[in-house]
Every structure is written in C-alpha cells, then in structure tokens.
Amino acid sequence: MRGLLQRLLRRAERRLPALTRYRRPESLPIELHRRRIYIVPTGFGLGFSVLLLVMLVGALNYANNAGLLLTCLLGAASAASMLVAFRSLDGLRLAHIRAGHAIAGQPLELALAFDSSRPRNAIRVDLGCSTTAFALDGHATTEVKLALLTTQRGWQPLPRLRVWSNWPLGLFRAWSWLHPEQSVLVWPRPETAGPPPRAPAEDASHMRLHRGDELAALRDYRSGDPQRHIAWKASARHTNLLVKDFEQPQSRPQWQLDWRLLGGLDHEARIARLARWVNEAQARRSQYSLWLPGNEIASGSGPLHHARCMNALAQLP
C-alpha cells in the first residue's frame, strides 16, 4: 500500500504543475508557508472516512441520535487533525546546512538547522530512501543529521528534501519540498596501494639537528661548552669531562607531494595517488607540502591542513 501511494505521488508530481512549482534551487533560509504546503489523506485516513460514512448512514437509517453525535464528533476531530497537520509545517524555517567530509562512494553527513517560533512535533525529513524524525521546542535551533550518498569527487548539488508530518492522528499527510541552492564538496577516493611518496627529509643527509629540552646523550667536553651542562657525577667515573648534549635529530620528516612527479599516470590516477599520500602523511603526523597545477600548498600538518589539501584535490578539473 505504501509503495502504491508513493508511486501515485510521483506520478502526480510529474502531471500537476502546482506540485513541481519549487523544483528550482532556492537560497537559504527557506521558510514554509501556506502556498507550498500540500495535504492528502493517508491510507488510514481513507479507511477512517469510509468508516464514518458507514456510521453516518447507519445512524440516519435507524434514527440513532447517539450514533449521529459520535459520527459528527469523530468527523470534527478528523477535520481538526488536518488543520493541526498543516500548522505543523506552516512557518517552519530551514536556516542553514552544514556539510561534513567524505570521500567519493561514502555517505556524507549533512546537518540541517531548523528553527520555529512555536513548538512542533513529529516532523520528518526524507532524503532518498532514508527518513529522519525530529521535534522543535520553539526556543532553539534543532539540528537534523542526514546521510547523503556520493558517487564522484568534486562539487555535488544537494537534492530536493521532502518535509512532512501526519501528526496528530495519522489521518492526513502534510508535506512540502525544500531544494537548497547549495553544493557539497566530495573528496577524491584514494588508491588502495602504491609506492610511497618522496620524502627527502627521511634521508640522513637531510636530517638536521635542533636544540631540544630533553637530554639526548653525553659527549666529551669541548672548549666553549657552558659549565652548567657538565655532567659532574658521570665525569667522576671517567678520565675526561662529559657534557650533556641536548641536540637531537628533527623528528618529523618533510614530505613533498608533487603533481609533476606523476607524469606516467592519467589525470584521475594522479589525484587518487596524491590523496593516498595525503592520508598517509596525516596518519603519521608528518609535515607535508602539496604542489598542484595552479595551486601550491606550503608544508604543514594537522586536520585543517589535511582538509585543505583534500579540498584542493577534489576541486581539480
């Protein structure tokens, strides 16, 4: 029954211009009003209407005033529920959308911020085949998290979202469409395996010393060493003076990720390899730089640097 109703709704969308009025993307914020909210009876509502009709005919046929009163009360309650379902969406506002990060082929998390001037219950949002329910208390913004399927890297426009409610009795379904004028950036899918990147700083010739705070080793005394660095207790057991050495090799290698060094690969294969190298450097907490056509990112590390490099790879033409 539910699949039949969904097919009928999709067919009505294609044939009725009023239902396709808001197919074009809209800028945020988007506020729902009476001209864009639609109401239809649910399957339960249709069955309930038939039941009321049978009760009405029976009450009139047998002149049963109590049955007629009950039928009128139930009819009034159903009509009131239609108004409540409409008011559940009327005035609802989508303030902004925050997108997370995901590589192509994985779901990307969307956080939709809804606000309202009054409390609302049992509101649902459909994105593809998934449905998420939420409520608003009328005082603060409510974030609704949805999963968006991704297929390829680059900018991906957001699809239409259906907001609906059948509260309070489930007799009527009120719904509307939201089509934000916003796109999300999908990161490229890294290759599964391949050669390591160029890391000249891992060679002994590129390892430079730096002055640290922790003791690295003891060495023989050299002229000019400060007296406070002399290890007197250790020197007492040797014939020569020993000095505390605080110099130690640099701990983090510098990775140079360069587009020009991958000339034997095609365009997408280069992007996939660089994405894998960026992920590996981030996992090892190494310092790394990235050279791309028209964009050179200096050496750095950390989550922000990783996101900047992946964003640059995702936006390559």
From TrEMBL:
Keywords: Membrane, Transmembrane, Transmembrane helix. The chain crosses the membrane at residues 37-60, 66-86. It comes from the Bacteria. PANTHER family: SLR1927 PROTEIN, SLR1927 PROTEIN-RELATED. This is DUF58 domain-containing protein.
